[in-house]
User: What shape does this take?
Amino acid sequence: MKNNLKVERAIHNLTQADLAERIGVSRQSINAMEKNKYVPSTVLALKIAKLFNKPVEDIFFLEETD
Amino acid sequence: MKNNLKVERAIHNLTQADLAERIGVSRQSINAMEKNKYVPSTVLALKIAKLFNKPVEDIFFLEETD
DNA sequence: TCTATATGTAAAGTTTGTTTTACATTTGAC
DNA sequence: GTCAAATGTAAAACAAACTTTACATATAGA
Assistant: This one.
């Protein structure tokens, strides 16, 4: 799975730490997500999508290998 | 987080085992999801949403406590 | 150049997702 | 009422999410 987090953060002018705080996870978790080090839970995806006012599918994308 | 899985399965006439097979998890995982025993990964949410042709937000819902 | 802020990364630890096996209970068709 | 299919559940084991601490690198502004 890939994601758009970096772009969305840029649009909303948020640092990784800002975003982490907003959705209640550690900054390292946001960093790892952006670097595709792991797949977040659906709760996190929903929270992030809500914060950015976009559907989950506009931020997280399935890949062939998923 | 809550979800609509049971309803969506009914609409599409799928058993828990059917759904599990379609998205590549165990039947127990589907059962546990439906009973809100755990929060699935975003990859699973995306696969389920894709299968049912609906946005993730139409199937999985944040709650106050999330 | 010095400093502050943002990002990358790593290791260890805790919690939670997910599988496997196995069995009990429910439900519907016959 | 029987039988098969579907669902509920549980325990053990493993994999992955997520946290904390800590440090290194990059970047931009004074």
